[in-house]
Structures are given as C-alpha cells and as structure tokens.
Amino acid sequence: MKTGIVILVGSALFAVSCFAGDLEKGVALHERKDYASALKAFGKAAASGNAEAQRRLGFMYYHGEGVAQGNKRALALFEKAAKTGDVESARNLGTMYEHGMSVDQNDALAASWYTVAAELGEPNSQFAASVTYYKGQGVARDRIEAAKWWNVAMSQGPVWERRIRPMIDSAEAKLSAEENAEGKRRAAEWLSTHNTRK
C-alpha cells in the first residue's frame, strides 16, 4: 500500500514539474518569437489547468501570435484562468468589459471582474472597484464600499497613495464623516483578514 502511495505522489510531482516545464519553455519560446512552438508549450500547460499558461495562451489568441486572431478563444482562456484565481486575467477581463475591448461593453461584468481581482489583492482593480461603486457603474451605488476599496488601494504603499490621492480627496469630500469612517473601518477589516500591508 505504501509503495502505491509513493508511486502516486511521485507521478503527481512528475506531472506538475512537466507542466511547469511547459510553461517555462513556452515563455522562453515566446520571448524568441517562436510563436508556433510557444503555442504548443502553453497549450500543454494550459490543458493541465495552469492558469498562467491559460492567460499567456489567451494573449496569443488576442494578439494573433502564431495563430489566427481569436477574441472569443482569448476571452474563454482569460475567464478560465481568472476563475482559478489568476489576478491578471481577472483584471484584464474587467478592463476589456469596461472599455468594450474585443467584447461588448458591459459595466456589470467589468465591475464583477474588477471586484474579483480586488479581492485577490490587485491595486489597479481595487481602485477600479472603488470607482464602480462610487459611480454606481455596473453595481448599485455604494459610497461606503467605494471608500473601502480606495482605502485598501492606498494601503498598497506610498506610490499607490500618491497616484490616487488627488482623486480620492475629491471623492472623500463628497462623503459624510460617517460614510468615510465606515469605509475606513471596512478597509481595515479587509486588510486584517487578507493579511496585507496597512
């Protein structure tokens, strides 16, 4: 019985290392612009469920690198990767739906994907989620939730705070003291739960 377990564990580790190898091989081939070979390597890793390979393959379809340009295929790959926690894919989907890039413009889907990426800790998406809640763009307008997300985004460090502070100051001025305080409380709660910088 122990021998069977060792064989299964060894096989699983071998499979994981092969798929990681396919991803790394695909990255190197893509950098050399050997798109046909990169496509195969990413395809193998993506088929195993590797989210980064799915995203990279999605970009190859999006840009038509070594394959006929295919927005639907790219979108399906981004969605597959995002659903397994690939933050870049979730952010990209938010951007695509917000601006109608190769998809029908859809505020609700943009807000949904930005929120997924925000929950995964991506600062661009945290700020984008704050904007969607502040404007009620694709979601019910919720100024407290907006304040939560912009406070979380600003917690990502001084560069982030400097980048978005002017916009936040203007928005905060339109909120009541109670709304601002509750937004900060929710942000602190999110940060403590997600173990990120404060």
How do the helices and strands line up, and which of them pair or pack?
Layout: H1 2-31, H2 35-47, H3 51-63, H4 71-83, H5 87-99, H6 107-119, H7 123-135, H8 143-154, H9 158-173, H10 177-194
Helix pairs in contact: 1-2, 2-3, 3-4, 4-5, 5-6, 6-7, 7-8, 8-9, 8-10
Task: Give an account of the 3D structure.
The chain has 198 residues and is mainly α. It has helices at residues 2-31, 35-47, 51-63, 71-83, 87-99, 107-119, 123-135, 143-154, 158-173, 177-194. Mean pLDDT is 88; it is low at 1-19.
Supply database-style keywords.
single chain, elongated, mainly alpha, 198 residues, 0% strand
Major β-sheet profile? none
Beta-strand residue percentage = under 5%
The number of helical elements comes to 10
Total beta-strand segments: 0
The 3D shape can be described as elongated
Mean pLDDT: 88
Sheet/helix structural class: mainly alpha
Helix content: over 70%
Q: For the record, give the distance between the C-alpha atoms at the N and C termini, rounded to a whole number.
A: 49 Å
Low-confidence stretches: 1-19
Helices and strands, in order, run as HHHHHHHHHH
Integer-rounded radius of gyration: 20 Å
